[in-house]
Design goal:
Elements: H1 2-28, H2 31-52, H3 55-61, H4 67-98, H5 102-111, H6 118-130, H7 134-157, H8 168-186, H9 197-229, H10 231-269, H11 273-306, H12 311-339, H13 343-366, H14 370-395, H15 400-425, H16 430-440, H17 442-450, H18 456-463
Helix pairs in contact: 1-7, 1-10, 2-4, 2-5, 2-9, 2-10, 3-6, 4-5, 4-6, 6-7, 6-8, 7-8, 9-10, 9-13, 9-14, 10-11, 10-12, 11-12, 11-15, 11-16, 11-18, 12-13, 12-14, 13-14, 15-16
Subcellular location: Cell membrane
InterPro entries: Poly_Biosynth_Transport (IPR050833)
Organism: Streptomyces collinus
Length: 489
């Protein structure tokens, strides 16, 4: 629980830091220049999946953390990072030519410096978490992010615009590696047997490939926007996607840290339909209610952050919020399939999502509509989740009808909250609109409180002990005769 609190607190600090950095760079870097940086942020991390090679996952899941294990992981990360760095430096001109963005080549080469330090930094910080030093790991990452953001902002102020953006991540990783290395040097890890590279790579190969597929799917819309609609369109799409993506990452990490250990424990006894229902119910509530609110109040917040000149990015927030909700459901469904060891289900969902997203984005880009590109991305994630529900229905884990009813209730709540916020904020200046939008949601919140027993997420929270029921106390039934309210989901 202490580890969870520290991780959530660290994520909140990083989110606030990134929001402040976003507000500054939106005023210091124009849309076309930021478009080149946005494309770079999707090209370079693609190679990062090979540079990191799933090493962090191996360290985190290791049964016994030994000194040879950590040293082998760091050496492998260093070697793979150097290889990826040299590869990206060689092919950077190809990307600049393909996207017709002159600044992209230098931007890519600068950002590729992150491979020289990030793989080893990730292994080191993960080893700190695995050793039970979550507070120190969070402080290390937060310090790195702070110094990196400050360095990027300072370079922009000094006139190295927009290329100063590309050095924030390498500096952040270098600081995290330095602090983490100093900590591990004072920490005595137990000795152990020699660890070979293939011992580290084999277990994480499948999940690395699956994560790479998700990364490609999420970035198809941005690549299509940059290639077919230009750097300005890519910059606008990236700003809006980054805004909803930060919230998506924060919510998904919270669910992952809370749910995955519980599902792993339940798997030893046999994963049941009730476990799946409760997990999906939590994800459904967070996705539809959270991003329903984001769709309503998010445009106002983004207007405040970015300032004038980013109207096209602000217009994308409602659609991208819907896409983020479906993405969160797909990701949480993937957690369930991972725990129940269903690689075919994972591949089926990923394949359906990739095909649907690529086909939809191709049609939208040919119509030269950035808004339709965002709609197509959301539709692709919807198809992926439908495939998940169909697989669970066939396997008997959860009836599709029950899942759809659950989604329907949470969608209605999220739509009501988002709609009230949008109506309250309409036709007002950003600062005034934010206050009016938040106040307009109050009646909907009160209505939800009165009707809370009809909301699936509330019944699950009561059943699992997250919330205490304030209803009249009755004689406790024997466990064999008790009815779990979450069964109504």
């Amino acid at each position: 629980m202490i580890s969870l609190r520290w991780n959530i607190t660290g994520s909140l600090v990083v989110v606030l830091l990134q929001l402040g950095y976003t507000a500054y760079t939106a005023r210091a870097v124009d849309a076309h220049a930021y478009g080149a940086y946005a494309v770079t942020l999707t090209v370079v991390p693609f190679f990062g999946y090979f540079a990191n090679a799933g090493l962090s996952a191996c360290v985190l899941r290791s049964a016994h953390l030994t000194l040879p294990f950590v040293r082998a992981a760091r050496r492998l990360g260093m070697v793979s990072g150097v290889v990826c760095f040299l590869l990206v430096e060689a092919v950077a001109p190809v990307f600049g030519s393909f996207f017709h963005m002159p600044d992209l080549t230098l931007m890519t080469r600068l950002l590729a410096c992150v491979f020289l330090v990030q793989p080893s930094a990730n292994v080191t910080v993960t080893a700190m978490r695995r050793a039970g030093a979550a507070p120190m790991a969070v402080l290390t990452e937060t310090l790195g992010q702070t110094v990196g953001v400050a360095t990027g902002a300072a370079l922009l102020v000094c006139g190295w615009n927009p290329f100063g953006l590309a050095l924030a991540q390498p500096v952040a990783a270098a600081v995290a590696l330095a602090v983490g290395t100093a900590w591990t040097a004072r920490r005595t890890l137990p000795d152990g047997p020699r660890v070979r590279a293939r011992d580290l790579l084999a277990p994480s190969g499948f999940m690395t490939s699956h994560s790479l597929g998700q990364f490609v799917t999420n970035n198809i819309p941005l690549w299509a926007s940059g290639r077919l609609l230009g750097a300005g369109a890519a910059g606008s799409y990236s700003r809006a996607f980054f805004f909803t993506g930060m919230l998506l990452t924060f919510l998904y990490q919270g669910i992952n840290w809370a749910v995955t250990p519980l599902l792993a424990e339940r798997r030893a006894e046999g994963l049941t339909g009730r476990d799946v229902r409760r997990t999906l119910c939590a994800a459904s509530a967070v996705a539809f209610v959270g991003f329903g609110i984001t769709a309503g109040i998010g445009p106002v917040v983004l207007r405040l952050l970015l300032g004038p000149g980013w109207e096209s990015a602000v217009a994308l927030v409602p659609v991208l919020s819907a896409g983020a909700a479906m993405t969160l459901l797909c990701y949480c469904g993937g957690l369930i399939d991972q725990v129940r060891s269903a690689p075919r289900a994972l591949l089926g969902t990923l394949s359906a999502t990739v095909v649907a997203t690529a086909a939809g984005v191709a049609g939208a880009a040919s119509a030269r509509s950035l808004l339709l590109v965002a709609v197509a991305a959301a539709a692709g994630q919807l198809v992926g989740h439908v495939v998940q529900l169909a697989a669970w229905h066939r396997s008997g884990l959860m009836p599709a009808g029950a899942a759809l009813r659950m989604h329907g209730v949470h969608l209605a709540v999220g739509t009501a909250l988002g709609g009230a916020a949008a109506l309250g904020a309409a036709d007002r200046s950003p600062a005034v609109a934010l206050g009016h939008g938040l106040f307009a949601m109050v009646p909907v919140v009160l209505g939800c409180v009165l009707l809370r027993r009809r909301i699936p997420a509330f019944t699950v929270a009561v059943a699992t002990g997250l919330l205490g029921s304030r209803g009249p106390r009755t004689r406790r039934l024997p466990s064999s005769a008790a009815t779990d309210p979450s069964d109504r989901c």
